[in-house]
Amino acid sequence: MNFLNTFYGVLCEIWSLLAEMAPYLLFGFSIAGILHVLLPGNRIGKYLSGNSLRSIVRASLIGVPLPICSCGVIPVAAHIKKQGAGNAPTLSFLTSTPTTGVDSIMATYALLGPLFAIIRPVCAFFAGTLAGIMVRFSEKEIKDIEKKENKDPCVICKIDTEHEHTLKEKTKEIFRYAFKVLLQDVGKWLVIGIVTGGMISYFISTDFIERYLGNPFLAYPIMFLIAIPLYVCATGSIPIAASLILKGMSPGAGLVFLIAGPATNTATLSFVGGKLGKKTLIIYLFAIIISSLIFGLLTDYFYSTSIEGKMLVHEGGFIPTSIKHISAVILILLLIYPKVIKVFNKNK
Q1: Are 107 and 117 within 8 A, CB to CB?
Q2: DSSP assignment of 276-289
Q3: Torsion of CA 144, 147, 153, 154, to 10 degrees
Q4: How many angstroms separate the CA atoms of 301 and 259, rounded?
Q5: How far apart are CA 62 and CA 329, in angstroms?
Q6: Using an 8 Å Cβ cutoff, are 18 and 62 in contact?
Q7: Contacts of 329 (CB under 8 A, 6+ apart)
Q8: Which of 178, 235, 279, 337 could make a disulfide contact with 33, Cβ separation 3.0–4.6 Å?
């Protein structure tokens, strides 16, 4: 009976995590599909090709203002990688993008003040650039992809001459690439990460978090241990950090959560390890930990430890619960549809 209760609890956590992630994942895949049609591969090669320092800095700068979470950034990063971006700028984009965005910067200012609103995007850019530079110099051979002078073939019909496609044809190709090609490419790593994250969410108690975060020497490592595997978006992490700071946690530890939480989760870790390699995964984690630690210490140094009691913490979700569950069902159907068709055709 206890086993059944535990199994049911873990299953509920997995579903809850899936429902929380699904809308952002679908949004991210849609962006990747639009980029696939509207942004030619030669333009990606021009700005983010190879592992040059310029490409790394550009990738980090592009990622900072985009309002894409740590789940939605996975398909976009996969698209950029497929279009010729090197491992270094791909990891830079994957690091800086989910940590902050235009919406989360404004929300950070509203709840935590101007210092947090400034230092958070700066830390995101620093972490992305550091991760990219470390990948660049860790690779044995650094070969930038040459910029293509000729035009790439059309992604829809594979013809390299000048021609136009209808809106219907473009829309069809967006959905085909986003929810068939790209989703199946990263689907395995998403499933592994979501299941692992659900198990972590079930077995780690919230009482443990509240009991030990009062000690500043324990707050940093505990926040790292909680934030790295946890799924939380850049905006959703703000009220959590604000409430913990109000209870006495150091502002620096709150910044650690704001950086490490959105930048990483089990799904992202699975993707980086599976698609970019284990060495890149270690560099990814190292860059996030070092960056959040440095800027966390700076925040504790400059920031007053007494937060005004009048600071309001926003509670409630930005996406209705019904939309989350519907998105989760849609995502599951998209994941299993090719498998079902394959089995059906085989039996037929």
Answers
A1: no
A2: I-HHHHHHHHHHHH
A3: 90
A4: 18
A5: 32
A6: no
A7: none
A8: 178
* One-letter amino acid for residue 266 of the chain: T
Structural tokens at position 50: 């190879």
- Please state, in angstroms and rounded to a whole number, the distance separating the CA atoms of residues 2 and 25: 34
Q: Which residue has the tokens 């979501």?
A: 194
Q: What pLDDT sits at residue 62?
A: 86
Cβ-contact 231, 266 below 8 angstroms:
yes
Sign of the CA dihedral with 268 first, then 270, 275, and 276 last: positive
- Cα gap 244→103, rounded to integer Å: 21
Domain residue limits, the chain: 2-347
How far is 142 from 51, CA to CA, in rounded Å? Answer: 7
Q: How many CA atoms lie within 13 A of 325 on its CB side?
A: 4
For helices 73-82 and 2-38, what crossing angle results, to 10°? 50
Residues of the chain with pLDDT under 70: 1, 39-46, 67, 140-155, 158-163, 204-210, 212-216, 235, 247, 303-318, 348
Interatomic CA distance for residues 285 and 80, integer angstroms: 21
Angle in degrees, 0-180, between the axes of helices 2-38 and 183-203, rounded to the nearest 10: 150
How far does Cα 147 stand from its chain's mean position?
28
